[in-house]
Design goal:
The chain has 285 residues and is an all-alpha fold. Helix 3 runs antiparallel to helix 4 and helix 3 packs antiparallel against helix 9. It has twelve helices and no strands. The longest helix is centred in the N-terminal third of the chain and has 37 residues, at 73-109. It has a single domain (2-33, 70-283), classed as MetI-like fold, CATH 1.10.3720.10. The radius of gyration is 23 Å and the shape is elongated.
Length: 285
C-alpha cells in the first residue's frame, strides 16, 4: 500500500511542474499573435544576431535576441509553439484511431486476422522510424499536413500492441460472453463492451506519445523534410542556427531548451495520468 502511495505522491509533484509548463505552452500557442512582440517574419537587419538581453550587447527590445535575419527569437518561439501543439495533438489522434481500431480487430477476432495485423506490426518495427518517416516525407513533400499524416500513419504500432493485449483478455470475460449469449453482433460487442474498457489506456499512451510526435516533427524539420522554412518551428530554428553555434549560441540553445522542457513536461503529466489510472495503484490506496 505504501509503495503505491509513494509512487502517486512522486508523480503528483512532478506532474504539477509539468502541468504548469504544458498549460503555459498551450496558452502561448493559442495567443501567439497577441503575445509576440514582433511578427513571425518581421526583419531588422540592423539588429541581426543581437544576443539575449542578459548578454553583452543585448537589448530589452529583443529579450531572447535575434537571428541571422534580425527576426525576434521570442516571437518566433511563440509562433513555433503553435506548430508543435498542432502536430503533437493531430498526429497522436491519427495514430490513436488507427492503432486502437487495428488492436481491437486483431485481439477480438484472432486467427488469420490477428496474424496479418501482427505481421504488419512486425514489418513496421523492422524499419527504423526516422528512416520510414524520411522516405514518406521525401515522396509527399514538405508541409505541415504531410508531417501530421506521416507521423500519424507511422506511430500506430504501440497502440495496436497495447489494445490487442487488453482485448485478448477482455474477450474472455463474463460480460463479453454474456453479450454473445444474448445475440449481440461482433461490432456491437467491440464498440459497446470492449472499447470503453480500453480507451482510457489508449488515451494515456497517447499523452506519452505526444512528446515523441513533437520531437519527430522537430527532427524532420531539422533535416529539411518537415515543415517548410516559411513557417516558424522550433526544429527549423535549431537547424537554421547550427551554422552560427560558435558565435550565436542562442539560435540553437534556446529553441532546443524549449523542445526539451515541453517534451519533459508532457512526459511528467503522462506518467502521472498513467499512475492515477492504474487500477493496481488505485486498489492499493
Amino acid at each position: 500500500m505504501f509503495k503505491g502511495l509513494s509512487v502517486l505522491k512522486k508523480s503528483t509533484l512532478t506532474a504539477k511542474i509539468g502541468l504548469v509548463v504544458v498549460v503555459l505552452w498551450i496558452i502561448c500557442a493559442i495567443f501567439a499573435p497577441l503575445l509576440a512582440p514582433y511578427g513571425m517574419d518581421e526583419k531588422d537587419i540592423a539588429m541581426r544576431l543581437t544576443p539575449p538581453c542578459w548578454e553583452d550587447g543585448g537589448t530589452i527590445e529583443h529579450i531572447l535576441g535575434t537571428d541571422e535575419m534580425g527576426r525576434d527569437i521570442l516571437s518566433r518561439l511563440l509562433y513555433g509553439s503553435r506548430v508543435s501543439l498542432i502536430v503533437g495533438i493531430m498526429a497522436v489522434v491519427v495514430s490513436l484511431i488507427i492503432g486502437t481500431a487495428l488492436g481491437l480487430i486483431s485481439g477480438y477476432f484472432g486467427g488469420k486476422v490477428d496474424t496479418v495485423i501482427m505481421r504488419l506490426v512486425d514489418v513496421m518495427l523492422a524499419f527504423p522510424f526516422i528512416f520510414m518517416a524520411l522516405c514518406l516525407m521525401a515522396v509527399l513533400g514538405s508541409s505541415l499536413t504531410n508531417v501530421i499524416i506521416v507521423l500519424g500513419i507511422t506511430g500506430w504500432v504501440p497502440y495496436t500492441r497495447t489494445i490487442r493485449a487488453q482485448t485478448l483478455s477482455l474477450r474472455e470475460r463474463e460480460f463479453v460472453i454474456a453479450a454473445h449469449t444474448e445475440g449481440c453482433s461482433h461490432w456491437r460487442i467491440i464498440f459497446k463492451h470492449i472499447l470503453p474498457n480500453v480507451i482510457d489506456n489508449a488515451i494515456v499512451q497517447g499523452t506519452l506519445e505526444m512528446a515523441g510526435a513533437i520531437l519527430s516533427e522537430a527532427s524532420l524539420t531539422f533535416l529539411g523534410l518537415g515543415v517548410p522554412p516559411s513557417i516558424a518551428t522550433w526544429g527549423g530554428m535549431v537547424a537554421t542556427g547550427r551554422q552560427y553555434i560558435f558565435n550565436a549560441w542562442w539560435l540553437t540553445a534556446i529553441p532546443g531548451l524549449f523542445i526539451f522542457l515541453v517534451c519533459l513536461s508532457i512526459n511528467f503529466v503522462g506518467d502521472w495520468i498513467r499512475d492515477v489510472r492504474d487500477p493496481r495503484l488505485r486498489g492499493s490506496d
